Amino acid sequence: MQADGLLEPVIVTASTDTAFIRNASPEQPLDLRMMDALPSMGGEPDLVRFAALQPGIQTGTDGFGGVHVRGGNADQNLFLLDGVPVYSPSHAVGMLSIFDSPAIRSASVYKGGFPARYGGRLSSVFDIRMKEGNSKDFQAEAGLGLLSAKLAVEGPIDKESSSFFISGRRTLLDPWIKGFTSYVNQEAGKDGFSNYAFYDLNGKMNFRSGTRHRFYVSLYTGNDEYHREEARAVKFSELEVNDKAQQDLVWGNTIASFRWNWLLHPKWFINTTVHSSTFRFSLLDFYEYEERDLDVSSRQYDLISFSSLIQDLSVKTAGEYHPSAQQTIRSGVSLIRHRFQPGVLGLDENSIDADIFVSGGQVQNLDSLPAYPVIRSLEVDGYLEDQIQLSAAWSANIGIYANYFYVQQKGYFSLQPRLFLLYQPAKEVGLHLSYSMMSQNLHLLTNSGLGLPTDLWVPVTENIRPLEAEQFEAGLSISLRSGWAMDLSAYTKRMKNLLGFKDGANFLVNGNVIQGGVLPDYWESFVTRGTGQSDGLELGLEKTTGVLRGTIAYTLSSSTRQLEEANQGKSFPFRYDRRHVLNMTGLWQINPGLSISTVWTYASGNPITLPTQTFNGESPYYTGIPGIIYSDRNGYRMRDYHRLDLHIQYRYVQSRFTHLFQIGVFNLYIRKNPLFVRIRENIYNLRNGN
User: Fold this and answer.
1) Whole-model pTM?
2) Domains in the chain and their CATH numbers?
3) In a 3-state reduction of DSSP, which class is residue 74?
4) pLDDT of 611-661, one tens digit each?
5) Distance CA 437, CA 466 (A)
6) CA–CA distance, 124 with 493 (Å, rounded to integer)
7) How does DSSP assign 85-141, residue by residue?
8) Are 466 and 497 in contact (CB under 8 A)?
9) Which residues of the chain have pLDDT under 70?
């Protein structure tokens, strides 16, 4: 046999020149390899905690309180798992996310200049894609850490045409938590224990039909369960005092989706997705106090129950057309049916039929409560987006997003323009400007304290308008031959129709069982509307080459709120307003198998509202509770937060197996950072006259 011709070899060479080459997109890909190499809580690499090391993104103390991007609320972030929105992406009340690292194929975050294909939230977009499975060979990955055990398996179903991926994770802490808390309670003279567990399960299959059709089926389900019970008996001379407490908290997501990718033409393809998702949340908080004297006994208790259920069913078609190498046009439409069922119940010993639900110090028969009312809504959206290279130096992403939301016989329509403009006079330098308008049809009613979360998702109503935001951003990016890259951005964001509780207001009203339920418009009387403003300067430095690598991320920002019927109408700091946030990471690759990494983080203290006085009287929202005078909203600040984490990783390859051993220290110098402030009247000291 004789060859017809000879192809010239293609030689690929690596270079230390990390010149800045960027298309017209505000997308910031997250480096999953760096995420796996850095210190992590309990040896669990976590996507959201890793993202919080970037400028402009922060979480509450040690993850509690959700993710806050450029002064936005936790509910203003759009988390997409294979294109499907996730309402609560957290485990352990924010310490970990539901995105298990072995299941992630890619992840990107948008903080501004949002492309038109994304909508529904005000502050950010986290676009996470699951692995699709190895179509040639079977692979497995197992892990055992302090917090959980995990297993991932992937391989071909029919080689070259279909594959699968499945992974699972479950916490291992529950037996230890129960035993330890039982011991602590016994030492404190109490009976009882606490327990907590979570799990995740991811699955994905893909099938190829010919050269033009590909089908994907994805599934995620996960759940968290927390239980606490305590009881104590104390005697004061002839008086016996007993108190009991019980708390149950359960939340989780279930998501199923089917996607059809159709290649109509080498330059044009269409994705059609059908998905169903369910988010469930329930909280039970029970406290009982009983006094027994010689001839007299009295009993008081409070029972609070929160629940939130969201069910979505959606169909979406999105197309992408490439008329040339310099231009990409995207468009799409979607239809979503929402079903909301929020509920709040408050009972005490004076409530009608209360003994049906509380007997012998135990909560029971809650399943017999009347079903909470359902709020149904319909959402339609569409977009058109053009990403184009205008010249050798100029490129742009221009688009428009349209949304219509129908609820309670009222519809809301919005047009949201988007623009991202990039000027690149040299391959090492880029300057960008962006403008985006965003709208949000969902509200998260959240408690103002830091205890167990009492968050309820509710839609806009005929009286409560959608949230809106406008954001302007300007930035400079520079890449140097030494391996360093710098990003500098300044932004300003204006928000309106934000919701917050009125001063002294809460979800609950004393009364009987029926009055405890939340009617569709019940919560509206406790909230007030207002505006918000966030401004900031973000600096990011990154060294991506060499034995020593690392990042420096600094954010200087201010975020305020002004609500009509709160804080006397005066502006006040946002709950997660932190003037300075600094994150520094370092990675020393000693050899191909051994590395040492560190993370040091510093943040100004969070604002907090504190009670300053009490008086004899009654709250307008409760009966039988002394009046409380509070400081200005968020008028105090907790002390600054900082900590240092250390991580050592050793990778050993043996035949067909790769072993990874990790050891780390969280909070190396044992900094006592404040998590929350709790102020509670001590009835036992009062009885002793103290």
Assistant:
1) 0.89
2) 28-687 (2.40.170.20)
3) helix
4) 877 766 554 444 445 567 777 888 888 899 999 999 999 998 888 888 889
5) 13
6) 12
7) EES--EEGGGTEES-BGGGEEEEEEE-SS--TT--S-SSEEEEEEE----SSS-EEE
8) yes
9) 1-24, 294, 351-371, 447-455, 504-522, 615-627, 678-690
